[in-house]
Amino acid sequence: MKNKKVAWITGGGTGIGSxxxxxxxxxxWDVIISGRxxxxxxEVQNFKKSNIHVYSLDITSEKECNLVFNKIKSLFxxxxxxxxxxxxxxxxxLNFEKTDSIKNVINTNLMGQVNCLKYALSQMKIQGFGQIVxxxxxxxxxxxxxSGIYGVTKSALTFLAESLYLELRSTNIFVQVVHPGxxxxxxxxxxxxxxxxxxxxxxxxxxxxxxxxxxxxxISFPKRLIIPMxxxxxxxxxxxxxxxKQFLKNIKKQYx
Length: 256
Ligand SMILES: NC(=O)c1ccc[n+]([C@@H]2O[C@H](COP(=O)([O-])OP(=O)(O)OC[C@H]3O[C@@H](n4cnc5c(N)ncnc54)[C@H](OP(=O)(O)O)[C@@H]3O)[C@@H](O)[C@H]2O)c1
Fold this sequence. Notes:
Blueprint (H helix, E strand, L loop, with lengths): L5 E5 L4 H12 L3 E6 L2 H8 L6 E5 L5 H15 L4 E4 L14 H29 L2 E6 L14 H18 L5 E8 L20 H14 L3 E4 L1 H12 L2 H19 L1
Parallel strand pairs: 1-2, 1-4, 2-3, 4-5, 5-6, 6-7
This protein binds NADP nicotinamide-adenine-dinucleotide phosphate.
The site of NADP nicotinamide-adenine-dinucleotide phosphate has 30 residues, from helix 1 and helix 4.
């Protein structure tokens, strides 16, 4: 019982988070899942009630994060892994008239992770070990049209993961970043465009689960999507913009 591993997965009530929860529980872990919709969390809890612990939490509230983390601490006394998975997605053209929508995405995808880290990382420093997994996205590799402010927050999250990895290099706290391709979840169900190499949340969770135990900093998949996107990442601006303009012209023609 004492050696049982403890993970906290934010946004564990749906999609990738719920499937990753099931994988960790099947391996004998205790998993805390949090999110705003308790009903969704309880559906996941039915997978194994004794090992899945649910907490209602809006990660944009530092106070709520503190309360939930105190409950985790009093129940388990430690945390082995935190998966910063919860996110908000609001695609479309950048629209600076709608600042509420922009603030919501930034507050969730960026400040939400900071709020959780404030408590989880301080506990990991006290106990002297831990693992932090940021769920970012290839949407943050380069500037993209129609990805709203979402890509901006994911770019920042990858930056944050890299910085923290380096700052914690001489500790026993390991940082990782995940860049999943398109995964069929409630988040992508709102996309109206074609999503190449779309995979199931079960398959994405399997790859993330294996990555967590691989001890590699970056977990990116599928290669068929990641390799071309990484190639675009290293191109000079002039070539990147030229290729993107051609691509967007072709897409427009297809829909005319
Ligand atoms: N699906 C993809 O193709 C894809 C690709 C690349 C990266 N990702 C990333 O993968 C992660 C998981 O996404 P998903 O695809 O599995 O989508 P999802 O099913 O919509 O999961 C997002 C989760 O975040 C929670 N959440 C949102 N706002 C929250 C808030 N303010 N406080 C607490 N929880 C909040 C939601 O629960 P509540 O609404 O109940 O709070 C939901 O369970 C995200 O970080 C996403 O950016 C997904």
